Amino acid sequence: YKLTGCPSQGACAFLGTASTMQCMAEAQGLALPGSALMPATMRDILQGARNAGRAILNLAARGIKPSDIMTRAAFENAIIIHSAIGGSTNALLHLPSIARELEITIEPELFDEINHRIPHIAHIIPSGPNLTEIFWFAGGIPMVQKTLGDLLNLDVMTVTGETLRDNLKRLEQENFFERNLGYLNNHAIARDEVISPLDKASGIGSVAVLKGNIAPQGAVIKYSACVEQMRSHEGPARVFDSEEEAYKSVVDGKIQPGDIIIIRYEGPRGSGMPEMYITMEALVCDQRLNGQVALITDGRFSGGTKGAAIGHVSPEAAAGGPIAFIEEGDIISYSSSDRTVNVVGINGEKHSEDHIQSILSDRAKTGIIPRPPRK
């Protein structure tokens, strides 16, 4: 596999978390224009490293600090780019955490508000067919910024010592947006297939923050990487207290099309919030279940995850959140368009919202079930 699937250095060739956070650094103005997702085997990356050294000396000489660049407007730019490219849901953990160090509060609702209005224009795996290097050949983050134009805060300071607006003008003058199109031609791919013009966007946004009686404080789905028919779904709960149990049920053929898998006690307190990647991949690789089963968890997902993957359920099970009191056979309903995720039935029978809430409250009186030890 090393010789064929991943034969050189560098990060993943899809928009996983490492690739996403490169894009977020550039979108915030913390990385040089055009540096995110630069192919690891090209000479450009050596020149980029030299340019970075010069930029650091310039910033030091001018007394420009990270806090001068990482303003709230810069964070908003990063979230706008994240929405436009279909970035990893892990950015919803990392960006607020970084902002907190700067005493800036980034609420989940800001992601949702931005994803309600920003077009999804970059078609990169897993939200499209293209590798990250193809995206870079098409113009990368600067081309997305240029396409979005005034939807961004263009007058923010960046590591060049100039504004984002000035950076884009300079790139235009240096022919950055045209010079790599020959590589795209080698792949017989047009730029518009990779980065759409605004009037040809595939949709609005890429990530939704869902709320409901399962996740009063929110949960996250990257609907741009989910087939249309599973962006909203209702089905019976299949409940597991660890990912290992859920994965075994998938590979043993115990999960049926239409089921909604619940994996709990995988949040920060429960087990450190690992990725539920292996279970989601098992679903995607099963022809019977692919595009037919959803997974809801207080854990998180890889940036490369495809499918109806709803994570970050909060409060988590280990903190006594409602996800701890879902039982096998409860009916679950979610909708990325309505931004909802709820228990709507008990033991296969639908009930009113008040009745459901009463039952969940009664179940909570017994307290949470201790998470089983890992084998």
Could you explain the architecture of this structure?
By secondary structure, the chain is α/β, with parallel strands linked by helices. 37% of the residues lie in helices and 13% in strands. It has 16 helices and eleven strands. It has helices spanning 17-27, 44-62, 66-69, 72-85, 91-101, 108-115, 132-137, 140-148, 164-173, 176-179, 181-186, 191-194, 243-251, 268-271, 277-284, 353-364, and strands at residues 119-120, 203-204, 208-210, 218-221, 232-240, 260-263, 294-297, 309-314, 331-335, 340-346, 349-350. A nine-stranded mixed beta sheet has the order 3-4-8-7-6-5-9-10-11. Strands 1-2 form a two-stranded antiparallel ribbon. Helix 1 (17-27) packs across helix 4 and helix 4 crosses helix 6. The chain is globular and about 65 Å long.
Summed up:
Helices cover 37% and strands 13% of the residues.
Radius of gyration, Cα only, in angstroms? 22 Å
Uncertain regions: pLDDT < 50 for 5+ in a row?
none
Task: For the record, give the distance between the C-alpha atoms at the N and C termini, rounded to a whole number.
Answer: 28 Å
Mean pLDDT metric: 95
Give the biggest beta sheet: 9 strands, mixed
Q: Tell me the structural class.
A: alpha/beta
Which features would summarize this protein structure in a list?
375 residues, alpha/beta, nine-stranded mixed sheet, two-stranded antiparallel sheet, 11 strands, 37% helix, globular
Helix-strand blueprint:
Elements lengths: L16 H11 L16 H19 L3 H4 L2 H14 L5 H11 L6 H8 L3 E2 L11 H6 L2 H9 L15 H10 L2 H4 L1 H6 L4 H4 L8 E2 L3 E3 L7 E4 L10 E9 L2 H9 L8 E4 L4 H4 L5 H8 L9 E4 L11 E6 L16 E5 L4 E7 L2 E2 L2 H12 L11
